[in-house]
Amino acid sequence: MLDKRNFYINGAWVAPAKPRDLEVINPATEEICAVISLGDQADTDAAVAAARAAFDPWSMTSKKERLDMIRALLEEYKRRNDDMAEAISLEMGAPIDMATSAQAGSGSWHIEGFIEAFEKMTLESRLANDELIVREPIGVCGLITPWNWPMNQVTLKAVPAMAVGCTVVLKPSEVAPLSSIVFTEMVHAVGFPAGVFNMVNGDGVGVGTQLSSHPDVDMLSFTGSTRAGALITKAAADTVKRVTLELGGKGANIVFADADDKAIERGVKQCFGNTGQSCNAPTRMLVERSIYDKAVKVAAETAEKVRVGDPKEHGNHLGPVVSDVQFGKIQDLIQVGIDEGARLIAGGTGRPEGLNRGYFIRPTVFADVNNDMRIAREEVFGPVLTMIPFDSEEEAIRIANDTVYGLTNYIQTQDKEKAKRVARRMRSGMVRINGVDSAAAAPFGGYKQSGNGREGGIWGLEDFLEIKHVTQWKD
Predict the structure, then answer these.
(1) What is the per-residue DSSP string for 72-100?
(2) How many domains does the chain have?
(3) CATH number (domain holding residue 278)
(4) Residue 419 and residue 433 in contact, taking contact as beta carbons nearer than 8 Å
(5) What's the catalysed reaction (predicted)?
(6) What per-residue confidence (pLDDT) applies to 362?
(7) Same structural domain for residues 277 and 203?
(8) Continuous H helices in 306-382
(9) What residue numbers bound the domain in which 209 lies?
């Protein structure tokens, strides 16, 4: 069992001000794999004070100096990619091959994207009459990250913040904290100045709320549930700090009759990716009625072929969901779907055959769902797909947009004009056509209760910058 009780404050690993142990559970075995400590107000205050003291000197360093540090971090990250993958697999159950390529790999991919974007970014520009526009770092940033894609989210926040000259205090998910500890080791190895990066473990009620309401924190960046995002926004209101939120989703995948032959199979697999624990998953499959019966058959067959197994095993399979809480929530919602009258065509409640422990879920598909059912409206966050028939393009658009969320929607059609027409009417921050995902650093974020702000590329850098207008700037 790993002992990871210390925090990283002001360039050093330090013991908590007051020990509050929390066991980290391996979701594949339900056994304790590590012990961390939950921070208290004194720990949060110390981390924020270190970040505040480091802000002035760090913000005054040159763009080149900061870029050089980020480039060094990229090299250290690549060197320790396997360590990162093992930590993620252990803490949240990602199968080791997926943890190595997608989970850990997302971190280096984002760092590379930020380096490229920041190299091209202009921090000063001129207006007429000797007026200057300056982009400056906002200040001390609190970063609260989730357990489902830990390094994807840590690098999407910490790297652009430090690159533009901010200092940070990271609070990773207490459910999956081990990967953030490895990331902190990388930051320390590279030699960022003391106080530029700080990490305090804690829960939302404790360190999360303390960062959100702290008067010396200038910005709070959060990824997680919509419910928690609303609480964080309220906690931050009294200090009028900037708050950026990347929250939940209930993505619609509109499959028209002229979709390609692999559209249904692809949609099922995309929904089940990361064991369904992705906010941008296409969890509502809307299928044109003329192909609906065939689509239901293909979806059931595809789900039945999906293998669930031990995260330590190599191969293309699903691991467990992250915790007993998530396992219970998903089981309850599957039962809700059955009780609501949806037609269960694959999976169901209980663990997959041959697995008697671990938080493993049967890959589940419901057909004949209507958009008023809870399973069509609530974010399940597990490998559960709902299928809804539609009769017209207009009806598909209406159903897709009939949700409080607006993160990612999907369109399957070989008609280019239809694809463009429907994409423009999707009330979401991202639209994916025919299964094609982003190939470059792009803005990630949503409309409505999916949050505000954008992460990734130049848009992610801009979130951490203030705009200053200066007159009479004479050469």
Answers:
(1) HHHHHHHHTHHHHHHHHHHHH---HHHII
(2) 2
(3) 3.40.309.10
(4) yes
(5) an aldehyde + NAD(+) + H2O = a carboxylate + NADH + 2 H(+)
(6) 98
(7) no
(8) 324-340, 374-377
(9) 2-247
Distances (CA, A) of 202 to 14, 44, 179, 247, 276: 15, 9, 15, 20, 25
DSSP bridge pairs for 92: none
pLDDT band at 439 (very low <50, low <70, confident <90, very high): confident
Q: List strand residue ranges (DSSP E) for 347-406, in order.
A: 364-367, 384-390
pLDDT tens digits, one per residue of 5-41: 999 999 999 999 999 999 999 999 999 999 999 999 9
DSSP code at position 159: H
Enter the DSSP assignment of 352.
Answer: P
Residues paired with residue 21 on neighbouring β-strands, in sequence order: 37
pLDDT in tens, 384-421: 999 999 999 999 999 999 999 999 999 999 999 999 99
Query: Where do the H-state alpha helices sit in 96-222?
Result: 96-98, 104-120, 150-164, 178-190, 209-213
pLDDT at residue 135, rounded to an integer: 98
Residue ending a domain, among 209, 229, 247, is 247
The two counts, helices (H) then strands (E), for the chain are: 16, 21
Whether 300 and 266 share a structural domain: yes
Q: How many CA atoms lie within 13 A of 125 on its CB side?
A: 6
Asked if the model's pLDDT at residue 336 lies above 90, the reply is: yes
Nearest partner of 182 among 96, 84, 53, judged by Cα: 84
In a domain, 455, yes or no: no
β 31-37/2-4 pair status: parallel
Point out the residues that are catalytic.
Answer: 246, 279
Grade residue 128 by pLDDT with cuts at 50, 70 and 90.
confident
Which residues lie below 8 Å from residue 395, measured CB to CB, with a gap of 6+? Answer: none
Distance CA 459, CA 447 (A): 15
Is pTM beyond 0.85? Reply is yes
- The token duo for 51 is 């970040």
Q: In angstroms, rounded to a whole number, what is the distance separating the alpha carbons of residues 350 and 230?
A: 32
Cα-based distances in Å from 346 to 368, 405, 446: 13, 26, 30
